[in-house]
Amino acid sequence: MTDCDLCGKAIPAVIPVRVFRSRLKFAYPEGIWKGLCETCLDSAQKTYLSINKDELSCRRNKCVLCGKKGRVYPVEVQIPDFSKGVVIKKVNVCTKCLDSINETYIRFKREQIMGSACEHGHGYVHEH
C-alpha cells in the first residue's frame, strides 16, 4: 500500500507524476516521482484545463508537490475521513507541476484505452 501525495488515501498503486524540486535539482536533475490516486489526477487535470495560461494566479503560496514558492492554483482533493467519509479540501499546485500532471494524465488515459482494447480483443496487440 502506498499513499497519494495529494489526498493521503492509501491505495495499492499510485500513478507516478514527475516533479522538479528546486532544492534537489542537482541531486535529481531528471526530477523526482510523486504518486497520485486517480481521483486526484482527474481533479488536477480539471484545474489544469480551467486555468487561463495568459492570466496569472493571484494566489501566492507553496506548491504541495514540488515545494516551490510562488503562483499556485487550487486543486480540489477528497481527503478520506473516518467520521465524515470524505472531506473536500483545496491544495496549492504550481503551473509546472500542473503541466507534468497533464502529461501523466494523457499517458495514463491512453494506457487505459490501450489496455481495455487488448482485453476485449479490439485494436492492436502490444507487448507486455
Automatic annotation (TrEMBL):
Q: What is this protein called?
A: F420H2 dehydrogenase subunit FpoO
The organism of origin for this protein: Methanosarcina barkeri 3
Read off the lineage from the record: Archaea, Methanobacteriati, Methanobacteriota, Stenosarchaea group, Methanomicrobia
Q: Which Pfam family is one of this chain's hits?
A: FpoO
UniProt superkingdom: Archaea
